[in-house]
């Protein structure tokens, strides 16, 4: 394995893909988002239950796909479970910048998620890494109900309203 790939598939990423955290459905989810990444064949279902204050009280995902897509979803749910909505938004923006931006920032708020930085050298893998986060973005936008997102659709700025 070349050094770049080694970085991409660091042990912690492999561990999350083999033993995903918060895997399953939430019967009493407030919002459910289905995410597709047709470029790689990855799919995830993201379920979130907001508490009355709008915190992400429970967050779970299920799905199948490549190691990067599943590890990214697993690490995302571990990071955001129990967090306020504002923290979820900050993390979403920081993660997008980490894998798709051109800056050198690896904000400490991302913690282990910083290991996903290696994907920025592999444009197709960026979609895999962002799949769960695109679903999160849609979940935060909708707040309730169900929707589907695809990595083939351009991301619309959060809050612009793209209700279905
Ligand atoms: Zn993938």
Walk me through the structure.
The structure is a single chain. This protein has 164 residues and is an alpha+beta fold. The chain has a single domain (3-150), classed as Alpha-Beta Complex (Sufe protein. Chain: A), CATH 3.90.1010. It has helices spanning 3-8, 11-18, 67-80, 85-100, 123-142; strands at residues 31-37, 42-50, 56-64, 145-150. It has a four-stranded mixed sheet, covered by helices on one side. The longest helix has 20 residues, at 123-142. The radius of gyration is 15 Å and the shape is globular. The model is unreliable at 159-164 (pLDDT under 50). Bound molecules: zinc ion. Zinc ion binds next to α3.
Tags for this model:
globular, 164 residues, 5 helices, disordered C terminus
Structure summary:
This protein has about 160 residues and is of the alpha+beta class. It has five helices and four strands.
Question: What's the helix and strand layout?
Answer:
Elements: H1 3-8, H2 11-18, E1 31-37, E2 42-50, E3 56-64, H3 67-80, H4 85-100, H5 123-142, E4 145-150
Parallel strand pairs: 1-4
Antiparallel strand pairs: 1-2, 2-3
Helix pairs in contact: 2-3, 3-5, 4-5
This protein binds zinc ion.
* Tally of domains: 1
Segments where pLDDT lies below 50 for 5+ residues?
159-164
User: What is the general shape?
Assistant: globular
CATH architecture: Alpha-Beta Complex
| Secondary-structure element series | HHEEEHHHE
Q: What is the count of helical runs?
A: 5
**What is the class in the CATH system?**
Alpha Beta
Spatial strand sequence of the major β-sheet: 3-2-1-4
Which fold name corresponds to the CATH topology?
Answer: Sufe protein. Chain: A
Beta content: 15-25%
Cα distance spanning the termini? 44 Å
Which compounds are bound in this model?
zinc ion
Structural class: alpha+beta
**Largest sheet composition:** 4 strands, mixed
Helical residue percent? Answer: 25-40%
Mean pLDDT: 90
Radius of gyration using CA atoms only: 15 Å
Number of strands: 4
């Amino acid at each position: 394995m070349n050094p770049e790939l080694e970085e991409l598939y660091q042990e912690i990423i492999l561990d999350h893909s083999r033993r995903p955290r918060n895997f399953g459905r939430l019967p009493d989810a407030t919002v459910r988002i289905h995410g597709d990444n047709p470029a790689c064949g990855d799919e995830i279902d993201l379920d979130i239950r907001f508490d009355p204050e709008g915190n992400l009280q429970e967050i779970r995902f299920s799905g199948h796909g490549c190691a990067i897509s599943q590890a990214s979803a697993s690490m995302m749910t571990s990071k955001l479970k129990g967090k306020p909505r504002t923290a979820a938004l900050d993390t979403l923006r920081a993660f997008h910048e980490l894998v798709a931006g051109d800056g050198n920032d690896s904000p400490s708020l991302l913690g282990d998620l910083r290991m996903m930085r290696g994907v920025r050298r592999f444009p197709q893998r960026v979609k895999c890494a962002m799949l769960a986060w695109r679903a999160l973005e849609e979940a935060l936008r909708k707040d309730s109900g169900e929707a589907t997102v695809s990595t083939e659709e351009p991301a619309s700025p959060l809050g612009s309203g793209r209700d279905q």
